[in-house]
Amino acid sequence: MRIVKLTEDTKKDILTNLLKRSPDNYGSYEETVKNIVNDIHSRRDTALFEYTEKFDHAKINADNVRVTEAEIEEAYTQVDAKLLETIRKAIVNIRTYHEKQKQYSWFDSENNGTLLGQKVTPLAKVGVYVPGGKAAYPSSVLMNVIPAKVAGVGKIVMTTPCNAEGKVYPTTLVAAKEAGVDEVYKAGGAQAIAALAYGTESIPKVDKIVGPGNIFVALAKRCVFGHVSIDSVAGPSEIMVLADETANARYVAADLLSQAEHDEMASAILVTTSEELAKKVSEEVDGFVKELSRKDIIQKSLDNYGYILVADTMQDAIDTVNEIASEHLEVVTANPFDTMTRIQNAGAIFLGSYSSEPLGDYFAGPNHVLPTNGTAKFFSPLSVDDFIKKSSIIYYSREALEAVHEDIIDFAEAEYLTAHANSIKVRFEK
């Protein structure tokens, strides 16, 4: 990995380079995605099945687009019993964590005849997109579905690509069943997002769409936003490790590569105050890359967006961490809990040598759907909050309104909104 001395100029260059990975910079795909979305909107199932045959080489129709109970039962026979046990353990951890996020309606009444409150209502229908293609992602099923279930969502619909034989990954189906998905449909890409957003003869329209995907999925989610809610327009994965001289170079190297293997556009960055650690990590990375199965993807990721940054002081390192605002941040310092208190921007923070990023991806409980590409400065991980909506409650008695009605009239007239003022006046006409 390249080792760079951290200065204001190098930090600026790195930030500029990382921002190139944003979905906002893929305008060449936008027209294609827009055409697909509009086609689904107008021709519905007909267009959906045509795109499925074109992109997934599968002949899907109204009779087989929905995954049947028999297909799910078959999937259980194809999933290793030990993996199923692990999935169930992970579900317990994820549910337990998210149950602590639940919000409840509240009301506050006063003796003067007023009552104010907030009514919390779960969304009625949510669509979960799960990628197919080259790999299965049962962990994504769990992370997107379980907080929706905890929130009390009425119906959860999942779409995921099938193979040319019309089959869905067994682990995806098993995870969906275990997590509590109500319906699963064989649809992928931008066309699946559009189907969830607008509805077709086969796939129901939902209120919100969540779940990861490639650039076409990300742009389609952005395209339909407003017709439905979405979780985010996510960019490629990223990891940052903040370390001092106490860190284990072999552990750090392994953790950096855990995200570099995702995608050629993934980012892996070490920020350290130790030049010796920087050199050791670079050597360990080189050794690991030769051994790992996705070495070509990893190497391109490191060449494009991999850095080892050497800072003069820990404060300089922390300032850089906060500026880059990484999706995943590992803090491997002599006192990681103290260091953590100075971190302002990160999607998920992993503390100490034995809290590596994959622990959060699969098992610990906190959600692995995280803000990317610097958006951790203002976005949060996916949570139960993403699957509820809040309504304000206002009640005033006649006496309570009479006490303040002139104030409201004054406010309305100051804004030249005489109908607003009149709405109050008529209640106190002599």
From TrEMBL:
Gene Ontology process terms (BP): L-histidine biosynthetic process
Please list the reactions this protein catalyses. L-histidinol + 2 NAD(+) + H2O = L-histidine + 2 NADH + 3 H(+)
This protein's cofactor list reads:
Zn(2+)
* Record's keyword terms, sorted: Amino-acid biosynthesis, Histidine biosynthesis, Metal-binding, NAD, Oxidoreductase, Zinc
Under which pathway is this protein filed? Amino-acid biosynthesis; L-histidine biosynthesis; L-histidine from 5-phospho-alpha-D-ribose 1-diphosphate: step 9/9
Q: What is its EC number?
A: 1.1.1.23
Which of this chain's residues are annotated to bind substrate? 237, 259, 262, 328, 361, 415, 420
In terms of domain of life, where is this protein from? Bacteria
Query: Which residues does the record give as NAD(+) binding sites?
Result: 129, 191, 214
Q: How is the cofactor bound?
A: Binds 1 zinc ion per subunit.
Q: Where is the active site?
A: 327-328
Give me the Gene Ontology terms describing cellular component: cytosol
In Swiss-Prot or TrEMBL terms, this protein is called Histidinol dehydrogenase
Q: Whose protein is this, by species?
A: Wujia chipingensis
Upper taxonomic lineage: Bacteria, Bacillati, Bacillota, Clostridia, Lachnospirales
